[in-house]
Automatic annotation (TrEMBL):
Sequence similarity: Belongs to the thioredoxin family. DsbA subfamily.
PROSITE patterns on file: THIOREDOXIN_2
Coiled coil: none
Physiological role: May be required for disulfide bond formation in some proteins.
Name recorded for this polypeptide: Protein-disulfide isomerase
InterPro entries per the UniProt record, alphabetical: Thioredoxin-like_fold, Thioredoxin-like_sf, Thioredoxin_domain
């Protein structure tokens, strides 16, 4: 499967395809830089069927405004958004039926991919709760040390959410799922021109990370249009 091949051996995952992270930490986002030759790697997306990857959605399916967030579990700006801003967005717009919120993962590294596989392991019902725990504990699990230690910290989060070890092992060792998720991410990033995280597609228009008051203005304008 070319560079899409995900090799999961216990706790080791090798190869993430055609993208890498450039840790150029701007004031509010983490930049994504395509590897040399990544354009060639994109052609192999046709070899991977991503139709089974489910968008994780919160809110009324018929809400007048849709927000798609692109974020990475290893991005500190994404953690800040989810720990500080998202609760306001949820209370003001998602829970009130004004916004349908879609979360899409960006993979900078294998650790973010593992986190995604744990978050998705409990299905849509548990996804946002597990994602919340992953972001809250980001500074701990990302600094646990060796890959095995990082995986064990993520497994602890999964167990805290009610997943058992057998289920977590099955999810984390699913190389086909890992490969599919990366191909899905790459196609999404290409289609929506995602170059940093967090990024937002609000009412069809791409937006960079911003203060909540600025986001409110964009949402309110979309609701009035």
């Amino acid at each position: 499967m070319n560079r899409r091949t995900m090799i999961l051996g216990g706790v080791a995952l090798v190869g993430l395809g055609g993208w890498a992270v450039s840790r150029q930490m701007g004031p509010s986002s983490t930049q994504i830089t395509p590897l040399a030759g990544a354009a060639n790697a994109q052609t192999s997306n046709a070899d991977v069927d991503t139709s089974g990857v489910q968008d994780m959605v919160m809110g009324d399916a018929d809400a007048p405004v849709t927000i798609i967030e692109y974020a990475s579990y290893t991005c500190p700006h994404c953690a800040n958004f989810h720990n500080e801003v998202f609760k306001k967005l949820k209370a003001d717009y998602i829970d009130t039926g004004k916004v349908k919120f879609v979360y899409r993962e960006v993979f900078f590294d294998r650790f973010g991919l593992w986190a995604s596989m744990v978050a998705r392991c409990g299905g849509p019902e548990k996804f946002f709760g597990i994602a919340d725990l992953i972001y809250k504990g980001q500074s701990e699990w990302t600094r646990a040390g060796e890959p095995a230690a990082i995986v064990e910290e993520l497994r602890k989060i999964g167990r805290l959410a009610g997943l058992n070890n057998e289920t977590l092992d099955e999810c984390l060792q699913d190389a086909s799922s890992a490969e599919t998720l990366v191909a899905w991410y790459e196609q999404n990033a290409k289609d929506d021109d995602i170059t940093s995280t967090p990024s937002f597609i609000i009412d069809g228009k791409k937006q960079s990370n911003m203060a909540y008051d600025d986001m409110k203005k964009i949402i309110d304008a979309a609701l009035e249009s």
